[in-house]
Write a structure and sequence with these properties.
two-stranded antiparallel ribbon; 61% helix
Length: 405
C-alpha cells in the first residue's frame, strides 16, 4: 500500500543566510528611499510610489521567488545533487517512500514563503502581488521540465515541448490558458513520478564505469599510451588517438528525428503567431545554408579527401563517391530551403503554416539524411588529419630536434 504524499516538511524552509540576504537587500533599498524622503520634505511619501521605483521592487521580489524555487529543486531533487543521488542509490529507498531529505513537490511551507513575498508586494512595495507567485511557478515548472530531460524521461519531455509554446498562442488566452497550465502541471507531475520509479537512472550507472588509470575518463575513450621514463604515462597523441577504441555512437532513430522536427516546426508556428511576425523566406534560406554548412563542418573537421582539387583534376577523378557522398544531405537541405522559400512567398495568409512546415522538413532532412557519421568514418574514402594544435606542437618539437648543435 502506497503512503499518501506528505504535504508537510520542516526541511523545506529557506535557510537563514538566504532569508537574511533578502531582508538585507530589501531593507537597504527601503532605508535609502526613507532617507531620500527625509531630504525631500515637500513631497513626503511620494518617492516610494514613483513608477521608476516600482521596477526595482519587482526585481527584488521576483528574484527572491526565483531563487527560492531554484533552492527547492537544487536542495531536494536527486538529479541536482550527485552526492545525494549516489547515497540514495545505495540505500533501501524506493519510489513508494518519501524522499529522505524532503519532498520535491510543493508543500504548505512554500505557500507560506511565497505568501510573505506577496504580502510585501501588496502592502509595502505596491506592485502586482501575483508577481512572486508567477515567478516561483514559472521557475519551478521550467526547471522541472529540464530535469525530466536530465533523467531521460523523453516521452514526458516531448509532450511538454509541445505544451509550453502553446501558451504563447493568442487563441488560448483567458480560461484556456488556465486549462493548459493545469495539463502542463499534470504532465510534469506524472513525469516526475515516472522518473523516481526509474531510479537509479541509467546515466548514473554509466558514470561508474570509470578507469582510474585513465585519470577519471572512460576506458573506451582513453588514448593509447606507453609507460615513459620514471613510470609516467606517455600519450602517443595523433594518429593513435584517432585509431584508439571509442564508445559506439548510435545514429538518431527516425522516430526521434520526426518528433524533434515536428517540435521545431511547432515552436516556429507559435512564435510567428504570438509575435505577428511577417513572412521571411530569406531567413529560411539563410538558416538552410547555415545548417548545411554546419553539417559539413561537423563531418569533415578532422578528415580530408584522399587528394586535393588539383589531384582530382590530374587524375581525372573529379567526383569521389566515397567522400563526396557527405555533401548530398547538405545539398538537399539547401534545395529544400530554396523550394520552401518559393512556397512561402506564394502562401499568402497561410505563411505561418508554410514556414513551420519548411522548418520541420529542414530539420528532418538534417537528422535523417545519410550517411551517418560513424558509417562515413569507417567506409568513406578519406584520410585523417591532426588537429591544428597538434600540428603546431609537432612543428615546434621538430624544430628543437633539428636545431644546430
Amino acid at each position: 500500500m502506497k503512503r499518501p504524499l506528505p504535504f508537510h516538511s520542516q526541511a523545506v524552509w529557506p535557510p537563514v543566510p538566504l532569508v537574511a540576504l533578502f531582508f538585507i537587500i530589501y531593507g537597504f533599498f527601503t532605508a535609502c528611499l526613507w532617507l531620500i524622503q527625509l531630504r525631500v520634505a515637500s513631497a513626503p511619501g511620494e518617492i516610494s510610489d514613483m513608477e521608476e521605483i516600482k521596477p526595482i521592487h519587482m526585481v527584488i521580489l521576483g528574484g527572491a521567488a526565483v531563487v527560492y524555487a531554484l533552492y527547492r529543486l537544487w536542495r531536494f531533487h536527486p538529479a541536482c545533487n550527485g552526492t545525494y543521488a549516489a547515497w540514495l542509490r545505495l540505500s533501501p529507498w524506493t519510489s513508494d517512500k518519501p524522499l529522505p531529505l524532503g519532498p520535491v513537490h510543493p508543500v504548505w511551507q512554500d505557500a507560506a514563503v511565497i505568501g510573505v513575498l506577496t504580502a510585501i508586494a501588496q502592502w509595502h512595495a505596491h506592485v502586482n502581488p501575483a508577481l512572486p507567485v508567477i515567478a516561483f511557478g514559472l521557475t519551478y515548472l521550467i526547471v522541472m521540465t529540464i530535469l525530466l530531460a536530465t533523467t531521460r524521461m523523453w516521452a514526458w519531455f516531448l509532450a511538454l515541448g509541445f505544451l509550453w509554446p502553446a501558451l504563447m498562442l493568442p487563441c488560448v488566452q483567458g480560461w484556456p490558458t488556465i486549462l493548459l497550465i493545469a495539463v502542463l502541471v499534470l504532465v510534469i507531475w506524472q513525469g516526475h513520478r515516472k522518473s523516481l520509479q526509474a531510479f537509479p537512472w541509467r546515466f548514473l550507472r554509466n558514470s561508474n564505469r570509470i578507469n582510474a588509470a585513465a585519470g577519471g575518463r572512460s576506458s573506451l575513450n582513453a588514448e593509447i599510451r606507453l609507460d615513459g621514463l620514471g613510470g609516467e604515462p606517455s600519450y602517443l597523441g595523433w594518429p593513435y588517438l584517432v585509431l584508439s577504441p571509442k564508445s559506439e555512437r548510435q545514429a538518431i532513430p527516425t522516430s526521434t528525428s520526426f518528433f524533434i522536427s515536428a517540435l521545431a516546426g511547432w515552436w516556429t508556428y507559435c512564435v510567428i503567431k504570438s509575435s505577428n511576425m511577417e513572412s521571411l523566406p530569406g531567413l529560411i534560406l539563410a538558416f538552410a545554408l547555415g545548417a548545411a554548412l554546419m553539417r559539413v563542418v561537423v563531418y569533415s573537421c578532422r578528415v580530408a579527401p584522399p587528394f586535393n582539387v588539383w589531384g582530382r583534376i590530374a587524375s581525372g577523378r573529379i567526383v569521389l563517391p566515397g567522400f563526396d557522398k557527405v555533401f548530398l544531405t547538405p545539398l538537399a537541405v539547401v534545395l529544400v530551403g530554396v523550394v520552401g522559400g518559393m512556397i512561402i512567398r506564394r502562401s499568402g495568409s497561410w505563411y505561418p503554416v508554410a514556414e513551420s512546415c519548411v522548418i520541420a522538413l529542414l530539420w528532418f532532412v538534417l537528422f535523417t539524411g545519410g550517411p551517418t557519421l560513424r558509417n562515413w568514418m569507417l567506409t568513406g574514402q578519406l584520410r585523417f588529419r591532426p588537429a591544428p594544435a597538434y600540428r603546431a606542437k609537432t612543428y615546434r618539437a621538430n624544430n628543437q630536434m633539428l636545431r644546430r648543435v
